[in-house]
Write a structure and sequence with these properties.
It is elongated and about 65 Å long. Helix 3 links the parallel strand 7 and strand 8. An eight-stranded parallel beta barrel has the order 7-8-9-10-11-12-13-14, surrounded by five helices. A four-stranded antiparallel β-sheet has the order 2-3-1-4. The protein has a two-stranded antiparallel sheet with strand order 5-6. The protein folds into two domains: about 60 residues, 2-Layer Sandwich (Alpha-Beta Plaits); about 250 residues, TIM Barrel. It has eleven helices and 14 strands. Helix 6 crosses helix 7. The chain is of the alpha/beta class and about 325 residues long. Bound molecules: phosphoenolpyruvate and manganese (II) ion (MN). The site of manganese (II) ion (MN) has 5 residues, from loops.
Length: about 325
């Protein structure tokens, strides 16, 4: 539910109204625009009588909103959110960022891969230290030692790092190392306890769409993080499970446009996990760029056939460099 506040309302009246709402168990998100002030009522609004609100002196009008997401909703926050990822990297709005690196942090090869990614045009480095593998017998990642390698690469290259957190109990490891962006993977997209815990930090979160997650479910997951107080959420389309078997997942590029319509949060596209085969990644990266994504996440490996995970979808540094220059051409054409 949204309440548009009358121009004549005083701060005191507004504060009184907010405490009235809070007494009803609701939270108020106040958004002050140039022309009007809007209050987003978060919580169970089913017991609130809109006519009662409209009868109040300070309320211009009230609108029921069908979408259950509020903090992520563009209706309450018309301007694009731009997220400061550190090292001068802003994600969102008109900017465009390329996140690249190996699926798993594996050891000494991280640095050369990271250097090549930066050289080609990547602005953020990715790499998984804690890996969510379908089989418990597959390599689970280097853990904290992998985070340390990412930090070393960050130090040399002066670029923010993005890495996945699987378990709220590991959060301290990420906080201690000042990890720039926490990735929540597809398998944890609805791990509500994890979402709430990262929501208690102010660390930017790259939130991936669930394996079979709808757009609304992704937005509600963002809502979990934001409602705890962390507004720095980046949405990520990484393909969804469909009946198609020729690609690992089905890249739902329309989700980029729909998410940007519904939400002010930046939307990154991950063609690597979406298609699952190196041969298609480049073309889909270009398509996502043309579709208006705010950035890309792409897996890059210096020796894909030896990669610990996702070698079949990794680009070599040379392939990645070519994709980056094509992406730049598309961005220039769109400008
Ligand atoms: C990854 O980024 O390596 C990853 C596991 O991605 P997803 O959660 O999208 O499968
Ligand atoms: Mn991967």
């Amino acid at each position: 539910m949204i309440a548009v506040v009358k121009d004549s309302a005083t701060e005191e009246q507004l504060a009184h109204f907010v405490s009235w709402l809070e007494a009803k168990g609701l939270t108020a998100h106040i958004s002050r625009g140039e022309d009007s002030t809007i209050i987003g009522l978060v919580g169970d609004t089913s017991l609130i009588d809109p006519f009662l609100l409209e009868g109040m002196d300070i309320i211009e009008r009230v609108q029921r909103v069908s979408e259950p997401f509020k903090a992520a909703n563009r209706k309450f926050h018309p301007a694009d959110t731009v997220i400061d990822c550190g090292y001068g990297v802003q994600l969102g709005g008109d900017s465009f960022q390329i996140i690249a690196g190996p699926c798993s942090v594996e050891g000494d090869n991280l640095l050369p891969i990271a250097r090549a990614c930066k050289q080609a045009g990547a602005t953020m480095l990715r790499g998984g230290a804690f890996k969510p593998r379908t089989s418990p017998y597959s390599n689970q990642g280097m853990g904290a030692a992998g985070l340390d390698l990412l930090c070393e690469a960050r130090e040399e290259l002066q670029m923010p790092i993005v890495t996945e957190i699987l378990d709220p109990r590991d959060l301290e490891l990420f906080v201690d190392r000042k990890i720039d962006v926490l990735q929540i993977g597809a398998r944890n997209s609805q791990n509500f306890n994890l979402l709430k815990e990262v929501g208690k930090t102010q660390i930017p979160v790259l939130l991936k769409r669930g394996l079979s997650g709808t757009i609304d479910e992704l937005l509600m997951s963002a809502e979990y993080i934001m409602s705890e107080g962390n507004p720095h959420v980046i949405l990520c389309e990484r393909g969804i499970r469909t009946y198609e078997t020729r690609t690992r997942n089905t890249f739902d590029l329309s989700a980029v446009a729909v998410l940007q319509h519904l939400s002010h949060l930046p939307v990154v596209a991950d063609p690597s996990h979406a298609v699952g085969y190196t041969r298609y990644v480049g073309k889909m990266a270009l398509a996502a760029t043309a579709a208006g994504a705010n950035g890309l996440e792409i897996e890059v490996h210096d020796n894909p056939s030896a990669a610990w995970s996702d070698g079949g979808q990794a680009l070599t540094p040379d392939q990645f460099a070519r994709v980056c220059s094509q992406v730049r051409a598309i961005r220039a054409a769109l400008a």
